[in-house]
Amino acid sequence: MQFNRDQFMEEGYLVLREVIPPAELEDLRAGYERMVDRQRDIWARERNPDDPPGGVWETGAQPRLALHRQPLLDLIDGQTANTAEIWLHENTQGVSTQLMGEPDAAVTEMMLMCSPVRDRGPAVWHRDIHPIDTAPLQAYIDDIMENGPRYVQWNISLYDDDVLWVVPGSHVRINTEEENRQLLADPRVPLPGGVQTHLNAGDGVVYITPILHWGSNYSAKLRRTIHGGFCNFTKYEALSYTKHLSVAAQATLKRWNKRSERMQVHTESALRAAIEKNSSAYHAALEEIHPGKGEKGKILTTIFLCKTAFFINLRKNPDLEDGPEDLRRRGTSSHPTTLNWGPEFADRFTPEEAKALWKRFKPLDAKLQRDEEHFFPGFQSGPMRYCFNETPADFGVEEFIASWRS
User: Fold this and answer.
1) Of the ranges 237-241, 286-290, 399-403, which one carries the lowest mean pLDDT score?
2) Which helix (H) or strand (E) holds 108?
3) Second CATH level (architecture) for the domain 5-135+149-254
4) Whether the predicted model's global pTM rises above the 0.85 cut
5) Which of 80, 179, 273, 333 could form a cystine bridge with 278, CB 3.0-4.6 A?
Protein backbone atom coordinates (compact mmCIF):
# COMPACT_ATOMS: atom_id res chain seq x y z
CA MET A 1 0.00 0.00 0.00
CA GLN A 2 1.31 3.43 -0.97
CA PHE A 3 1.31 6.24 1.59
CA ASN A 4 3.30 9.32 2.58
CA ARG A 5 4.88 9.02 6.03
CA ASP A 6 6.09 12.63 5.93
CA GLN A 7 2.49 13.75 5.46
CA PHE A 8 1.43 11.50 8.34
CA MET A 9 4.01 13.02 10.65
CA GLU A 10 3.08 16.57 9.61
CA GLU A 11 -0.71 16.28 9.68
CA GLY A 12 -1.09 13.48 12.23
CA TYR A 13 -3.39 11.31 10.14
CA LEU A 14 -3.83 9.60 6.78
CA VAL A 15 -6.91 8.37 4.93
CA LEU A 16 -6.02 5.15 3.11
CA ARG A 17 -8.23 3.52 0.50
CA GLU A 18 -9.15 -0.18 0.38
CA VAL A 19 -7.39 -1.13 3.59
CA ILE A 20 -9.76 -4.07 3.50
CA PRO A 21 -9.24 -5.68 0.07
CA PRO A 22 -12.58 -5.59 -1.81
CA ALA A 23 -12.59 -9.37 -2.21
CA GLU A 24 -12.49 -9.78 1.60
CA LEU A 25 -15.06 -7.14 2.57
CA GLU A 26 -18.24 -9.23 2.55
CA ASP A 27 -16.69 -12.08 4.54
CA LEU A 28 -15.31 -9.62 7.08
CA ARG A 29 -18.71 -7.97 7.45
CA ALA A 30 -20.25 -11.36 8.11
CA GLY A 31 -17.58 -12.28 10.66
CA TYR A 32 -18.01 -9.05 12.59
CA GLU A 33 -21.80 -9.30 12.52
CA ARG A 34 -21.55 -12.71 14.16
CA MET A 35 -19.42 -11.11 16.87
CA VAL A 36 -22.02 -8.36 17.26
CA ASP A 37 -24.72 -10.97 17.79
CA ARG A 38 -22.58 -12.73 20.39
CA GLN A 39 -21.81 -9.48 22.20
CA ARG A 40 -25.49 -8.50 22.21
CA ASP A 41 -26.29 -11.77 23.98
CA ILE A 42 -23.61 -10.96 26.59
CA TRP A 43 -24.95 -7.44 27.12
CA ALA A 44 -28.49 -8.74 27.49
CA ARG A 45 -27.36 -11.20 30.19
CA GLU A 46 -25.26 -8.58 32.00
CA ARG A 47 -27.77 -5.72 31.93
CA ASN A 48 -28.60 -3.88 35.14
CA PRO A 49 -32.08 -4.32 36.65
CA ASP A 50 -33.25 -0.94 35.37
CA ASP A 51 -31.76 -1.34 31.88
CA PRO A 52 -33.82 -2.20 28.79
CA PRO A 53 -33.69 -5.83 27.61
CA GLY A 54 -30.68 -5.23 25.34
CA GLY A 55 -28.52 -3.60 28.04
CA VAL A 56 -25.58 -1.64 26.62
CA TRP A 57 -26.76 -2.29 23.07
CA GLU A 58 -29.80 -0.11 23.75
CA THR A 59 -28.28 2.40 26.17
CA GLY A 60 -24.91 3.10 24.52
CA ALA A 61 -24.31 6.13 22.31
CA GLN A 62 -21.68 4.07 20.47
CA PRO A 63 -21.91 0.38 21.42
CA ARG A 64 -18.38 -0.95 21.23
CA LEU A 65 -17.09 -4.50 21.05
CA ALA A 66 -13.71 -5.18 22.64
CA LEU A 67 -12.56 -8.31 20.86
CA HIS A 68 -9.19 -8.24 22.63
CA ARG A 69 -10.84 -8.90 25.99
CA GLN A 70 -12.66 -11.85 27.38
CA PRO A 71 -15.40 -13.04 27.08
CA LEU A 72 -15.41 -12.07 23.39
CA LEU A 73 -11.98 -13.63 22.90
CA ASP A 74 -13.53 -16.95 23.86
CA LEU A 75 -16.14 -16.50 21.12
CA ILE A 76 -13.69 -16.21 18.25
CA ASP A 77 -13.97 -19.37 16.15
CA GLY A 78 -13.56 -20.50 12.59
CA GLN A 79 -16.46 -18.30 11.44
CA THR A 80 -15.10 -15.16 13.11
CA ALA A 81 -11.33 -15.65 12.94
CA ASN A 82 -11.10 -13.00 10.23
CA THR A 83 -12.11 -10.33 12.80
CA ALA A 84 -8.72 -10.88 14.42
CA GLU A 85 -6.77 -11.73 11.27
CA ILE A 86 -7.47 -8.30 9.73
CA TRP A 87 -5.21 -6.78 12.40
CA LEU A 88 -2.26 -8.80 11.10
CA HIS A 89 -2.76 -7.79 7.47
CA GLU A 90 -0.02 -5.94 5.60
CA ASN A 91 -2.49 -3.05 5.13
CA THR A 92 -2.86 -2.63 8.91
CA GLN A 93 0.08 -4.13 10.82
CA GLY A 94 2.50 -3.59 7.95
CA VAL A 95 1.49 0.03 7.45
CA SER A 96 1.55 0.70 11.20
CA THR A 97 5.06 -0.71 11.47
CA GLN A 98 6.30 1.69 8.81
CA LEU A 99 4.43 4.71 10.20
CA MET A 100 5.83 4.12 13.68
CA GLY A 101 9.34 3.47 12.44
CA GLU A 102 9.38 0.25 14.49
CA PRO A 103 10.53 -3.13 13.21
CA ASP A 104 7.41 -5.04 14.28
CA ALA A 105 4.39 -3.07 15.55
CA ALA A 106 2.02 -5.06 17.77
CA VAL A 107 -1.74 -4.71 17.94
CA THR A 108 -2.91 -3.56 21.37
CA GLU A 109 -6.69 -3.40 20.95
CA MET A 110 -9.17 -4.96 18.54
CA MET A 111 -12.57 -3.28 18.70
CA LEU A 112 -15.68 -2.55 16.66
CA MET A 113 -17.72 0.66 16.96
CA CYS A 114 -21.42 0.26 16.18
CA SER A 115 -24.33 2.57 15.53
CA PRO A 116 -26.75 3.15 18.42
CA VAL A 117 -30.36 1.99 18.27
CA ARG A 118 -31.52 5.63 18.12
CA ASP A 119 -29.92 8.92 17.10
CA ARG A 120 -27.56 10.21 19.79
CA GLY A 121 -26.01 13.19 18.03
CA PRO A 122 -22.41 14.38 18.25
CA ALA A 123 -19.78 13.55 20.87
CA VAL A 124 -17.22 16.13 22.06
CA TRP A 125 -13.86 17.03 20.58
CA HIS A 126 -11.02 15.44 22.50
CA ARG A 127 -7.49 14.07 22.50
CA ASP A 128 -6.99 10.44 23.52
CA ILE A 129 -4.71 11.21 26.44
CA HIS A 130 -5.40 11.60 30.14
CA PRO A 131 -2.92 13.82 32.01
CA ILE A 132 -4.04 12.24 35.27
CA ASP A 133 -2.67 8.78 34.50
CA THR A 134 -0.55 9.35 31.38
CA ALA A 135 1.39 12.59 30.80
CA PRO A 136 1.00 16.26 29.83
CA LEU A 137 0.43 16.96 26.17
CA GLN A 138 3.82 18.63 25.72
CA ALA A 139 5.58 15.44 26.80
CA TYR A 140 3.81 13.58 23.98
CA ILE A 141 4.59 16.35 21.49
CA ASP A 142 8.29 16.39 22.39
CA ASP A 143 8.52 12.61 22.08
CA ILE A 144 6.70 12.53 18.72
CA MET A 145 8.93 15.26 17.31
CA GLU A 146 12.09 13.55 18.57
CA ASN A 147 11.27 9.87 18.04
CA GLY A 148 8.04 9.49 16.06
CA PRO A 149 4.74 8.10 17.38
CA ARG A 150 4.69 5.33 19.99
CA TYR A 151 1.10 4.48 19.17
CA VAL A 152 -1.06 4.74 16.05
CA GLN A 153 -4.82 4.29 16.04
CA TRP A 154 -7.15 3.12 13.29
CA ASN A 155 -10.76 3.48 12.16
CA ILE A 156 -11.52 1.04 9.32
CA SER A 157 -15.04 1.20 7.92
CA LEU A 158 -17.09 -1.83 6.95
CA TYR A 159 -19.69 0.56 5.50
CA ASP A 160 -19.39 4.14 4.27
CA ASP A 161 -18.49 6.30 7.29
CA ASP A 162 -18.00 10.06 7.65
CA VAL A 163 -18.32 10.33 11.44
CA LEU A 164 -14.69 11.14 12.32
CA TRP A 165 -13.25 14.66 12.07
CA VAL A 166 -9.65 15.64 12.84
CA VAL A 167 -7.68 18.88 13.13
CA PRO A 168 -4.53 18.38 11.02
CA GLY A 169 -1.30 19.16 12.84
CA SER A 170 -2.90 19.34 16.29
CA HIS A 171 -0.98 16.24 17.42
CA VAL A 172 2.18 18.36 17.81
CA ARG A 173 0.82 21.54 19.38
CA ILE A 174 -1.36 22.65 22.25
CA ASN A 175 -4.80 24.15 21.59
CA THR A 176 -4.96 27.61 20.10
CA GLU A 177 -6.85 30.33 21.98
CA GLU A 178 -9.51 30.22 19.26
CA GLU A 179 -9.92 26.46 19.74
CA ASN A 180 -10.17 26.83 23.50
CA ARG A 181 -12.88 29.48 23.16
CA GLN A 182 -14.85 27.31 20.76
CA LEU A 183 -14.47 24.16 22.86
CA LEU A 184 -15.59 25.97 26.00
CA ALA A 185 -18.58 27.48 24.18
CA ASP A 186 -19.66 24.27 22.44
CA PRO A 187 -17.41 21.18 22.06
CA ARG A 188 -19.93 19.44 19.77
CA VAL A 189 -19.60 21.55 16.62
CA PRO A 190 -16.87 21.73 13.95
CA LEU A 191 -13.61 23.39 14.97
CA PRO A 192 -11.80 25.89 12.72
CA GLY A 193 -9.54 23.90 10.42
CA GLY A 194 -11.30 20.62 11.18
CA VAL A 195 -11.41 18.03 8.39
CA GLN A 196 -14.12 15.42 7.96
CA THR A 197 -12.77 12.01 6.98
CA HIS A 198 -14.98 10.47 4.33
CA LEU A 199 -14.42 6.72 4.31
CA ASN A 200 -15.87 4.39 1.74
CA ALA A 201 -16.54 0.83 2.78
CA GLY A 202 -13.14 -0.81 3.31
CA ASP A 203 -11.22 2.45 3.71
CA GLY A 204 -9.30 3.38 6.85
CA VAL A 205 -8.00 6.43 8.68
CA VAL A 206 -4.89 6.05 10.81
CA TYR A 207 -3.89 8.78 13.24
CA ILE A 208 -1.56 9.73 16.07
CA THR A 209 -3.57 9.70 19.30
CA PRO A 210 -2.88 13.20 20.71
CA ILE A 211 -4.60 14.67 17.64
CA LEU A 212 -7.81 16.63 18.27
CA HIS A 213 -10.65 14.55 16.85
CA TRP A 214 -14.42 14.34 17.00
CA GLY A 215 -17.20 11.79 16.57
CA SER A 216 -19.53 14.16 14.73
CA ASN A 217 -22.80 12.21 14.65
CA TYR A 218 -23.73 8.96 16.35
CA SER A 219 -26.91 8.27 14.41
CA ALA A 220 -28.94 5.09 13.99
CA LYS A 221 -27.63 4.74 10.42
CA LEU A 222 -25.82 1.41 10.18
CA ARG A 223 -22.23 1.81 11.34
CA ARG A 224 -19.68 -0.93 11.79
CA THR A 225 -16.19 0.58 12.08
CA ILE A 226 -13.17 -1.44 13.16
CA HIS A 227 -11.17 0.45 15.77
CA GLY A 228 -7.89 -0.22 17.56
CA GLY A 229 -4.21 0.52 17.53
CA PHE A 230 -0.59 -0.56 17.48
CA CYS A 231 2.43 0.08 19.66
CA ASN A 232 5.83 -1.60 19.99
CA PHE A 233 4.60 -4.01 22.69
CA THR A 234 1.33 -5.12 24.17
CA LYS A 235 -0.36 -7.46 26.64
CA TYR A 236 -3.00 -10.08 25.87
CA GLU A 237 -5.53 -11.58 28.24
CA ALA A 238 -5.37 -14.97 26.55
CA LEU A 239 -4.12 -16.67 23.41
CA SER A 240 -6.35 -19.75 23.43
CA TYR A 241 -8.52 -18.28 20.65
CA THR A 242 -5.53 -18.21 18.29
CA LYS A 243 -6.03 -21.92 17.52
CA HIS A 244 -8.66 -20.71 15.04
CA LEU A 245 -6.21 -18.40 13.27
CA SER A 246 -3.66 -19.16 10.58
CA VAL A 247 -0.33 -20.68 11.59
CA ALA A 248 1.43 -17.42 10.71
CA ALA A 249 -1.01 -15.38 12.81
CA GLN A 250 -0.53 -17.69 15.80
CA ALA A 251 3.23 -17.31 15.56
CA THR A 252 2.97 -13.51 15.33
CA LEU A 253 0.73 -13.18 18.39
CA LYS A 254 2.95 -15.50 20.41
CA ARG A 255 5.99 -13.45 19.39
CA TRP A 256 4.29 -10.24 20.51
CA ASN A 257 3.23 -11.82 23.78
CA LYS A 258 6.79 -12.89 24.56
CA ARG A 259 7.96 -9.37 23.81
CA SER A 260 5.33 -8.06 26.20
CA GLU A 261 6.63 -10.39 28.90
CA ARG A 262 10.15 -9.04 28.33
CA MET A 263 8.88 -5.47 28.54
CA GLN A 264 7.27 -6.21 31.87
CA VAL A 265 10.65 -7.47 33.08
CA HIS A 266 12.33 -4.29 31.84
CA THR A 267 9.63 -2.16 33.49
CA GLU A 268 10.24 -3.97 36.77
CA SER A 269 13.98 -3.47 36.35
CA ALA A 270 13.52 0.29 35.92
CA LEU A 271 11.32 0.51 39.01
CA ARG A 272 13.70 -1.60 41.11
CA ALA A 273 16.62 0.53 39.95
CA ALA A 274 14.74 3.54 41.32
CA ILE A 275 14.10 1.77 44.63
CA GLU A 276 17.80 0.93 44.86
CA LYS A 277 18.88 4.41 43.66
CA ASN A 278 20.90 2.77 40.90
CA SER A 279 21.19 5.35 38.13
CA SER A 280 23.11 3.18 35.65
CA ALA A 281 20.58 0.36 36.00
CA TYR A 282 17.74 2.86 35.50
CA HIS A 283 19.29 4.18 32.28
CA ALA A 284 19.88 0.63 31.07
CA ALA A 285 16.23 -0.28 31.70
CA LEU A 286 15.00 2.79 29.81
CA GLU A 287 17.13 1.76 26.86
CA GLU A 288 15.61 -1.73 26.93
CA ILE A 289 12.05 -0.38 27.07
CA HIS A 290 12.50 2.06 24.19
CA PRO A 291 15.82 1.46 22.42
CA GLY A 292 17.45 4.46 20.82
CA LYS A 293 15.03 7.05 22.19
CA GLY A 294 16.39 10.50 22.95
CA GLU A 295 16.10 12.59 26.09
CA LYS A 296 12.50 13.62 25.40
CA GLY A 297 11.48 10.01 24.92
CA LYS A 298 13.14 9.02 28.16
CA ILE A 299 11.36 11.70 30.18
CA LEU A 300 7.98 10.59 28.76
CA THR A 301 8.81 7.00 29.76
CA THR A 302 9.82 8.24 33.20
CA ILE A 303 6.49 10.05 33.58
CA PHE A 304 4.68 6.83 32.65
CA LEU A 305 6.75 4.98 35.25
CA CYS A 306 5.78 7.62 37.81
CA LYS A 307 2.09 6.81 37.28
CA THR A 308 2.85 3.09 37.43
CA ALA A 309 4.66 3.60 40.73
CA PHE A 310 1.58 5.29 42.19
CA PHE A 311 -0.76 2.51 41.10
CA ILE A 312 1.58 -0.14 42.52
CA ASN A 313 1.67 1.69 45.84
CA LEU A 314 -2.10 2.13 45.82
CA ARG A 315 -2.63 -1.59 45.27
CA LYS A 316 -0.09 -2.73 47.84
CA ASN A 317 -0.98 -0.07 50.43
CA PRO A 318 -4.63 0.81 49.73
CA ASP A 319 -5.16 2.51 53.09
CA LEU A 320 -2.12 4.74 52.72
CA GLU A 321 -3.12 8.40 52.58
CA ASP A 322 0.07 9.41 50.80
CA GLY A 323 -0.49 10.21 47.15
CA PRO A 324 -2.44 12.60 44.92
CA GLU A 325 -6.23 12.55 45.18
CA ASP A 326 -6.60 13.06 41.42
CA LEU A 327 -4.96 9.71 40.77
CA ARG A 328 -7.00 8.01 43.49
CA ARG A 329 -10.20 9.20 41.82
CA ARG A 330 -8.97 7.92 38.49
CA GLY A 331 -8.52 4.38 39.75
CA THR A 332 -6.14 1.70 38.51
CA SER A 333 -6.80 1.57 34.79
CA SER A 334 -4.06 -0.15 32.80
CA HIS A 335 -2.65 0.08 29.31
CA PRO A 336 0.68 -1.37 28.16
CA THR A 337 1.52 1.72 26.08
CA THR A 338 1.91 3.66 29.32
CA LEU A 339 3.73 0.80 31.13
CA ASN A 340 0.86 0.36 33.59
CA TRP A 341 0.56 -3.40 33.38
CA GLY A 342 -2.25 -3.82 35.91
CA PRO A 343 -2.83 -5.53 39.28
CA GLU A 344 -0.89 -8.73 38.61
CA PHE A 345 2.21 -6.73 37.80
CA ALA A 346 1.85 -4.73 41.01
CA ASP A 347 2.01 -7.98 42.97
CA ARG A 348 5.67 -8.33 42.00
CA PHE A 349 6.38 -5.77 44.74
CA THR A 350 5.99 -6.00 48.50
CA PRO A 351 4.14 -3.24 50.40
CA GLU A 352 7.46 -1.88 51.69
CA GLU A 353 8.98 -1.87 48.21
CA ALA A 354 5.91 -0.07 46.91
CA LYS A 355 6.30 2.64 49.57
CA ALA A 356 9.98 3.09 48.70
CA LEU A 357 9.14 3.18 45.00
CA TRP A 358 6.58 5.93 45.44
CA LYS A 359 9.03 7.92 47.57
CA ARG A 360 11.45 7.96 44.61
CA PHE A 361 8.82 9.20 42.18
CA LYS A 362 7.00 11.71 44.42
CA PRO A 363 9.28 14.64 43.50
CA LEU A 364 8.46 14.13 39.82
CA ASP A 365 4.76 13.74 40.58
CA ALA A 366 4.83 17.08 42.42
CA LYS A 367 6.44 18.71 39.37
CA LEU A 368 3.58 17.44 37.21
CA GLN A 369 0.95 19.32 39.24
CA ARG A 370 -0.20 22.87 39.83
CA ASP A 371 -1.09 24.23 43.26
CA GLU A 372 -4.77 24.52 42.34
CA GLU A 373 -7.21 22.67 40.11
CA HIS A 374 -7.45 24.02 36.56
CA PHE A 375 -8.98 22.98 33.26
CA PHE A 376 -8.24 23.05 29.54
CA PRO A 377 -10.85 21.77 27.07
CA GLY A 378 -10.22 19.04 24.54
CA PHE A 379 -9.05 16.36 26.98
CA GLN A 380 -10.77 13.30 28.39
CA SER A 381 -10.55 14.72 31.90
CA GLY A 382 -12.28 17.34 34.02
CA PRO A 383 -10.66 19.95 36.29
CA MET A 384 -7.62 18.68 38.18
CA ARG A 385 -4.25 19.69 39.57
CA TYR A 386 -2.23 17.70 37.04
CA CYS A 387 -0.88 19.81 34.19
CA PHE A 388 -2.79 19.36 30.96
CA ASN A 389 -0.17 20.89 28.69
CA GLU A 390 3.16 21.83 30.24
CA THR A 391 5.98 19.54 31.31
CA PRO A 392 8.22 20.30 34.29
CA ALA A 393 10.68 23.09 33.50
CA ASP A 394 14.36 22.13 33.83
CA PHE A 395 13.49 18.65 35.07
CA GLY A 396 14.79 15.82 32.94
CA VAL A 397 15.88 12.27 33.66
CA GLU A 398 19.11 13.37 35.34
CA GLU A 399 17.23 15.78 37.61
CA PHE A 400 14.79 13.00 38.45
CA ILE A 401 17.68 10.69 39.41
CA ALA A 402 19.31 13.48 41.42
CA SER A 403 16.08 13.83 43.43
CA TRP A 404 16.67 10.34 44.88
CA ARG A 405 19.47 11.81 47.02
CA SER A 406 17.25 14.41 48.71
Assistant:
1) 237-241
2) strand 106-114
3) Sandwich (2.60)
4) yes
5) 273
